[in-house]
Write a structure and sequence with these properties.
By secondary structure, the protein is of the alpha/beta class. The chain has helices spanning 19-30, 42-48, 63-69, 85-97, 110-118, 126-139, 169-172, 174-178, 213-229, and strands at residues 11-15, 34-39, 55-57, 76-79, 102-106, 122-124, 143-148, 154-159, 181-187, 190-192, 206-211. Helix 4 links the parallel strand 4 and strand 5 (102-106).
Length: 230
């Protein structure tokens, strides 16, 4: 049975080792998080034992079986079996009823997501979210990554436009011009978290900004026009 070892660390239970569940477990393992993974596929579970010692084969996801694994001791449980809606819903219901503080469930569509939400789970749409992130990257030149926090607030990671290089944050003034706030600037392995107005942009800088999607698009369009004029 899984039991949390360190009080200060968040522990995670992952149910289902498809592509989403496996990727999630591997990424969490990189942070040295405590992880419990469950799946009916013995081969997948065996492979995951290279990532975590708490990898268990389960042939049923009823409440009694889940309790026997110790998943109720986790801080967060993630249901990664969205392809089988009935199993996803029942497993989510069981995990919520076990009193796990946070239950996250993968949904494949709006109706599925609404049911999971009504059960008390936080709902994620991996395929939809990846599509949004890809569209954002394709639509805006230089965007390396994109996370949508809400309809109005996004976090974007983008290469500094050539037109910025050699100019200061104050000169560009992206807050008033594009409605974006600079969260941090990366260059190689250096990260500047408190960006001063007199910071001069360098070649290779990566901007991490927050603001609207429209603001990022306007910034991208401005950079392209500025480059065309050079």
């Amino acid at each position: 049975m899984f039991g949390k070892q360190k009080a200060e660390k968040t522990s995670y239970g992952i149910v289902g080792l498809g592509r989403f569940g496996t990727a999630l477990a591997c990424e969490l393992a990189k942070t040295n998080a405590e992880i419990l993974v469950l799946d009916k596929d013995e081969e997948k579970v065996r492979e995951m034992r290279e990532v975590t010692e708490h990898a268990i084969v389960v042939h049923s996801l009823d409440k009694k079986t889940l309790m026997e694994t110790g998943i109720q001791n986790c801080d967060v449980a993630v249901v990664c079996i969205g392809e089988h809606m009935e199993s996803s819903i029942l497993t989510t219901l069981n995990l919520v009823s076990l009193g796990i503080p946070t239950v996250v469930a993968k949904a494949t569509g709006p109706e599925h997501g609404e049911i999971l939400s009504r059960l008390g789970a936080e709902v994620v749409y991996p395929e939809r979210d990846m599509g949004i992130r890809l569209a954002q990257r394709l639509e805006t030149a230089g965007v390396l990554d994109f996370i949508q926090l809400s309809q109005k607030i996004n976090i974007s990671k983008l290469l500094v436009p050539d037109a910025f290089v050699g100019r200061t944050v104050l000169d560009i003034n992206i807050r008033s011009r594009f409605g974006l706030n600079i969260i941090a600037i990366e260059n190689n392995n250096d990260v500047v978290e408190s960006v001063n107005p007199d910071y001069m942009f360098r070649d290779g800088d990566i901007l991490i900004v927050s603001g609207s999607r429209d603001g990022v698009i306007k910034l991208s369009e401005w950079a392209l026009k500025a480059e065309a004029r050079r």
